[in-house]
Amino acid sequence: MSPSDLAGAYQWNYRSQTPRRPDWFRQWPGGNRIAVTEKAAGERPLGYMSPGPRPSPYTLKLSASLGFKWNGDYGDSDVPCIIDVAGNRLVSVGYVRPAYSDNDILTLGLAGALEQLKDEFDAHYEEAERHPMKFCYAVHNFNGGRPGAAKVLENFLQYVKSHPGVWFCRCIDIAQYWLEQAKAG
């Protein structure tokens, strides 16, 4: 496996890597995408979000057939929702909304970006007293990986950690929680 294979698996090269045919996850010049990701991360991926996001007509069916539990391609809900895909249950964790990506806020300058994130988080935190809320901040390597933007993220995380009851989680954690709640209720 070459470094470019790994980059393609993680989509760090930001080429469009959206499933366009049924064998997309399995047939790839760099090898099986799932195996490459599992080798690099140390655990099998259980969800998928295309870059952009740009889902195709195959995305949900492929994700369900591979045993994935979540998808991040759809931004049509403030809270996660369960999608039935041919009898399989996938949790749509939604992409960024409500919240931001580094592309949205870095045009405000570093101080403005931090204040925008804090203000938006405060509104979500207050709203979460009434019903579940999620707050996402998507970071791209070509923007958020730069020193100033990384400092904005570091300061924002310190701010958020000062609030009781905030759950820092991965998409799979959200999906598992949502599926458990659906079973219980």
Overview of the structural elements:
With 185 residues, this protein is α/β, with parallel strands linked by helices. It has two domains: 3-68, no CATH class; 99-184, no CATH class. The protein contains seven helices and six strands; from the N terminus they run ααβαββββααβαα. It has helices at 3-10, 33-41, 59-65, 102-105, 110-127, 147-161, 171-184; strands at 47-48, 70-71, 81-85, 88-92, 99-101, 136-138. It has a four-stranded mixed beta sheet with strand order 1-2-4-3. The protein has a two-stranded parallel ribbon with strand order 5-6. Helix 3 links the parallel strand 1 and strand 2 (70-71). The longest helix is centred in the middle third of the chain and has 18 residues, at 110-127. It is globular. The termini are far apart.
Task: Give a short overview.
The chain has seven helices and six strands. By secondary structure, it is α/β, with parallel strands linked by helices. It has two domains: 3-68, no CATH class; 99-184, no CATH class.
